[in-house]
Amino acid sequence: MGHSACPHDCPSTCALEVDLLPGNRIGRVRGDAANSYTAGVICAKVARYAERIGHPGRLLTPLVRDGAKGEGRWKEASFEAALDLIAEKFERAEAAHGAETVWLNYYAGTMGLVQRDGINRLRHAKGYSNQFDSFCTNLAWTGFTMGTGALRGPDPREMAKSDCVVIWGTNAVSTQVNVMTHAIRARKERGAKIAVIDIYDTPTMKQADIKILLRPGTDGAFACAVMHVLFREGLADRDYLNEFSDDPAGLESHLKERTPQWAEAICGVPVAEIEAFARLVGTTKRTFFRLGYGFTRQRNGAVNMHAALSLAVVTGCYRHEGGGAFHSNSDIFRLDKSLVEGRSGFDPRLRWLDQSRIGRALTGEAEALNGGPPVTAMLIQNTNPANVAPEQRKVVAGLRREDLFVAVHEQFMTDTAQLADVVLPATMFLEHDDIYRGGGHQHIVLGPRLVDPPEGPRSNHEVIEALGQRLGVADKPGFGMTPRAHIDWMLGKRGLGDFKSFRAEKWADLQPDFETAHFLKGFAHQDGRFRFRPDWTGTPAANKPPERMGPQGPVEQLPEFPDHVELIESADAEHPFRLATSPSRSFLNSSFAETPSSRAKEGRPVLMIHPEDAQALGIAEGERVKLGNQRGDLCMHARLDAGQRRGVVIHEGLWPNSAFEGGEGINTLTGADSCAPYGGAAFHDTRVWVRKA
Ligand SMILES: Nc1nc2c(c(=O)[nH]1)N[C@H]1C(S)=C(S)[C@@H](COP(=O)(O)OP(=O)(O)OC[C@H]3O[C@@H](n4cnc5c(=O)[nH]c(N)nc54)[C@H](O)[C@@H]3O)O[C@H]1N2
Ligand SMILES: Nc1nc2c(c(=O)[nH]1)N[C@H]1C(S)=C(S)[C@@H](COP(=O)(O)OP(=O)(O)OC[C@H]3O[C@@H](n4cnc5c(=O)[nH]c(N)nc54)[C@H](O)[C@@H]3O)O[C@H]1N2
Ligand code: SF4
Ligand SMILES: [Mo]
């Protein structure tokens, strides 16, 4: 048996036990019971990793396009020849347009610090364009740190000591199963109540004692009305607020008009349910608010995160064990990535490209090109933009450009790889060394190489090193080291040991002490106070500029205090429905759509629609429906489901584009306009029309 960490883009970062079989194969993968957060539980898709690592469709040989883009005709090539070709194309592009014409596009297919972030070493050494990572965390982290000043919180294991667990805007059963482990422990051992706040009856909501069903993009209204009731009924912790917050009196007077009646009209939750929820969290001081990402994927998502967080602060729950609001612990790890990323060469003045606006950038929109030259050469690692990025028609049109050279380093022939000029096969996590940090907990977990890769695939690290050599930067900082040497360096600088000690210990638990974690020595702003009045365009402590592109979107519309702001893509006469594109249980972003058991579980692309809406449109269960907006349209099958409010439709994904009739995926419908105040993509905030197909 071997020990590892799940590399996928999931807040749980589970500690794994892997059965190692003869012949360099793996058997069952289990959660490590000795890890206090994983607690022996992992999701079904990773338990069956043997299906993915031994998949017959895995890429094993470098391929060079031999036909039109996307035609599917390839010539096999040696790895050396493919790398030579990439280097030659990059140099030619740079000679014609300057180094900023090259975009090394990556994201979080693996979360390992060596294999994921090493691509930045090549970027900085060469002076290629900077990438702004806006897909996922931006709206959530911004909203959270505006309030607290830091991206951390009470020990998530404390959930088991709560009397009430509020699971807000995360479908944890599907997307981070370990939250449920600890929440259900609280219910079993202490009779804790579990409340779930979502926009449809998710697998998580199905397990809830209290179900709060909102209209998409209205969490701010709900939170304000709950706070209104807390103040009105004397359930706000005024002593705590006076000591730990910036302006409780201002907040209270601002909330005077944010009544439950006002909120019901916006969010759809009946007054009585708003009041009952307020009384529950107002009188249950050990309430743990587990704030997810999903509810921030709205154009007003940062405001809504800050409002939900503010509600937790008003109750004073942070004072209590088992109480407080937790979103992510990303600030506690502090592993120094400066060497693996070659940070000494980082130049924030070089052109930034926003990963969410890749379609606009590749189709030459000046604003998205951000003052720089056209993008004419790319290496894409760990991401599948032709599937996952908004405004998909533009992404695909851009990737098809004849004057753009695209190399994709992948494990499978994804939607993006299909459009490449060169495809390089990549190793999987059990075949290379790396180290991982858990966003949803407090561990750093080692993932050493446990099996040999098949002949053919190379790791991200190997590809970056080989390109560094060919492009003349192999002598720059961070190059020429092995993954283990990088891991030793990062751990050593943090005083945490090295690869070898982690091999023995498996992980390190970095949870700060109770008072620090609960902000009882003060919040992380200079004055120690929580901000009910955020400085929206100031500098939140986490994720400081120049890591990002500066204020964007309609910042002038952001409210002074927690509020509902109507920045969302509201329904209108032509587009009467609001669409959310929530993660499915058996896929992980665009990954696992290739494994037979995940595919079988998910069936086919489906649109969940309220039976009364379906009836009004003459749509029956299982019938084909067409949905669309100004960005495009696509077909799928209807599933009649009363789990959401009328006017809301849900599509769980991400399905490969090829799973849809026309070969275009769900992100055909989603928009790439920047959200205030620091950008980010609003994947669940899309208006559409729906008809019978
Ligand atoms: N199985 C599986 N696991 C995953 C992923 C996956 O695709 N599949 N993705 C991984 C990644 S990259 C991430 S970032 C995390 C994300 O995990 P989560 O934090 O769970 O975020 P989402 O899954 O985007 O959305 C969670 C829920 O928010 C709901 N939601 C959407 N809009 C609103 C709203 O306005 N208000 C409220 N209250 N709820 C809303 C959605 O319907 C969904 O049920 O999960 C990771 N884990
Ligand atoms: N409609 C809609 N769109 C969404 C979302 C949504 O909820 N709805 N969620 C958004 C979110 S939160 C995110 S984070 C993004 C995620 O978007 P991506 O990061 O693009 O998605 P993943 O499928 O996690 O990973 C991409 C690829 O990395 C590859 N990969 C894995 N490990 C390795 C490796 O070691 N080396 C190499 N070279 N490749 C590897 C996988 O095979 C996979 O094809 O999608 C976003 N898009
Ligand atoms: S995908 Fe998430 S829940 Fe599943 S094993 Fe990986 S970290 Fe754990
Ligand atoms: Mo994500």
UniProtKB/TrEMBL annotation:
CDD domains for this protein: MopB_3 (cd02766), MopB_CT_3 (cd02786)
Pinpoint the 4Fe-4S Mo/W bis-MGD-type domain residues: 1-57
Give GO terms: molecular function aspect only. Answer: iron-sulfur cluster binding; metal ion binding; molybdopterin cofactor binding; oxidoreductase activity
Q: What Gene3D superfamilies does this protein map onto?
A: 2.40.40.20, 3.40.50.740, ADC-like domains, Dimethylsulfoxide Reductase, domain 2, Formate dehydrogenase/DMSO reductase
Q: Which residues cross the membrane?
A: none
List keywords of the entry alphabetically.
Iron, Iron-sulfur, Metal-binding
Please give the residue ranges the record annotates as the region Disordered. Answer: 531-552
Q: Does the keyword Iron apply?
A: yes
| Superkingdom | Bacteria
Family assignment from sequence similarity: Belongs to the prokaryotic molybdopterin-containing oxidoreductase family.
The name of this protein is: Dehydrogenase
